[in-house]
Structures are given as C-alpha cells and as structure tokens.
Amino acid sequence: MSDIHSGSPAVQVRLATPADAPALLAVYAPYVHQSAVTFELEPPPVDEFAERIREVQAFGVWLVAEVEGTLAGYAYGGRFRARAAYGRTAETTVYLAMGREGQGIGRRLYEALKRILALQGFRTLVGGIVLPNPPSVRLHEAVGFRPIGVFHNVGNKFDQWRDVGWWELDLGPLPPDAPLPRPVSALSQSEIAEACAAIKASANRLIHLRQDIVAQDAITERNPPVSG
Ligand SMILES: CC(C)(COP(=O)(O)OP(=O)(O)OC[C@H]1O[C@@H](n2cnc3c(N)ncnc32)[C@H](O)[C@@H]1OP(=O)(O)O)[C@@H](O)C(=O)NCCC(=O)NCCS
Fold first, then answer.
1. How do the pLDDT tens digits run along the chain, 228 residues long?
2. CB under 8 Å to 203, separation ≥6 — which residues?
3. Range of the domain at 175
4. Residue 200: inside a domain
5. Which residue's alpha carbon is at the smallest distance from atom 26 of ligand 1?
6. Residue 20 lies in a domain
7. Is 138 inside a domain boundary?
8. Contact (Cβ atoms closer than 8 angstroms) between residue 138 and residue 127
9. DSSP secondary-structure letter at 47?
10. pTM, 2 dp
C-alpha cells in the first residue's frame, strides 16, 4: 500500500518499547559492522539495547517506523550530556533498515520526533553526523537543523580518522525558568497519535504547541492537583 498523495509507502510511526529491541538491533547492527556512521565497533547485546530504549524513553522519546507491519527504521531523542543543566536538550539520531532509504521514512520519523520532544518541553535538539554522510545531512537540514561546526579526527574506525559535524534545531522559545521536560508517558494518547501522524510540523505549529504547554503549566501551578 502507498500514500496516494506522495507515492511513498504507507508508514506507521509509534513509540518503541523494550520488546522491539531484537528488531531494532537487527536494523542497527549492520551499520556497526559495515559503516562508520556509528562509532560503536561491536553491536551491544540485545538486553543492553533494550535497556537503552528504557533509558531514552525515561528522558526523551524513541520512535519506530513500520511499513506493512515490518520494522523499517527508528529515531530517538535521548540525553545529550549527563550534567543537569543539559536536561532540556536532546540528542537525536535516526537509522533505517538497509534498503529503506530515500522513501521519506527518515523525514516522517523526524517530524514526529520534533513534535513529541517539543510537547515534552525540550528547548534544543542536537545531532552529530560522522562525515561524509550526505543523506543524513540532507535529512537534518530538510527538517530544520542548521550546521554548527565540525570536530576533526575525533573518531577512528576501520583505521581511518573521522570527522563529526554537529547540527542543531531550535524548538522555539521557552521561559528561562521552564520546568524540566515531561516524560513521554505524561503525554496523552491523542497527542502522541497526532504527532506520529505528522507529515510536516511547521515552526509556527511547534511554537503554538509550546504556548499550550506553558499555559498548562501556569494553570497547574496556580491550581495544583489535590492529592489524596
Ligand atoms: C540518513 C537516513 C536516515 C535518511 O532517511 P531517508 O528516509 O533516506 O530520507 P528521506 O527519504 O526522508 O529524505 C529526507 C531528505 O534527504 C534527502 N535525501 C535522502 N537520501 C539522500 C541521498 N542519498 N543523497 C542526498 N539527499 C538525500 C531527500 O531528498 C530529502 O530531502 P528533500 O525533502 O529536501 O527532498 C537514511 O538514509 C539512513 O538510515 N542512513 C543510514 C544510517 C544513518 O546514516 N543514520 C544517520 C546517522 S547520523
């Protein structure tokens, strides 16, 4: 089945769970073995990969894309740095099953990722790309990331020195005393479903989403929920 508007395959985006670990690892492991797009030299064991999914979902969000029930790729926004002041910044990444490139699936995943991370209350997204990687650079810039700079010779894989370029995306203003992002489990089913169905989130739409969050937080502060 294909999307009648774009001719691209019908893609379903949903939240990942630790039970997806074997299928997600099957997407990731070939890149570890065959490419330098990741600096891991050996794929992690499946239980460690499941733990990564749990850790990311506790902080940001991990999404999977399915095409006709088959897992076609994933994207996530996880912790950028452990230090507390980085708590409103997420580092994003995306991998498609080999052979699924160039069909708009990366863009679908990233549009959904942006919306969910904005709804959670993140301020800035950052992405590191091992260079050269034109499809990844193109995808990041197509969804609004802008290039920041390049760290030279920071990696060495397959006996070759590797540069890493960094890109950032501004999710829109938040007050300086903005609360830490909400866990994805605090979002409603309809917020997640709407974000996962997003083809393209305009900057204005993201800013409106944020205004809703700020307004809701102000209401909650004025009228804290009654416990007990
Ligand atoms: C990078 C990757 C996620 C891109 O996803 P994708 O589904 O192939 O990209 P899309 O089809 O959604 O295309 C997004 C944009 O990138 C462009 N693009 C895709 N493949 C491209 C290529 N090979 N060369 C140049 N541009 C390319 C598209 O034209 C589109 O731009 P546009 O909207 O301006 O036309 C995918 O190629 C992949 O999984 N690569 C291997 C893993 C990897 O490198 N991950 C990134 C780690 S930083």
1. 555 444 456 899 999 999 999 999 999 999 999 999 999 999 999 999 999 999 999 999 999 999 999 999 999 999 999 999 999 999 999 999 999 999 999 999 999 999 999 999 999 999 999 999 999 999 999 999 999 999 999 999 999 999 999 999 999 999 999 999 999 999 999 999 999 998 765 555 566 666 655 555 554 444 444 443
2. 144, 172
3. 11-222
4. yes
5. 135
6. yes
7. yes
8. no
9. H
10. 0.89
Which amino acid, one-letter code, is at 193?
A
Going from the Cα of 101 to the center of ligand 1, the distance in angstroms, rounded, reads 6
In a domain, 159, yes or no: yes
Dig out the tokens for 13 from the structure.
Answer: 């985006």
Ligand 1 center–CA 31 separation, angstroms: 15
Mutate to test the pocket of ligand 1, among 40, 138, 169, 199 (most ligand atoms within 8 A of CB): 138
**Total count of domains within the chain:** 1
Question: CATH no. for residue 120?
Answer: 3.40.630.30
Hey, what are 80's tokens? 């950028």
Strands 146-157 and 160-170: antiparallel
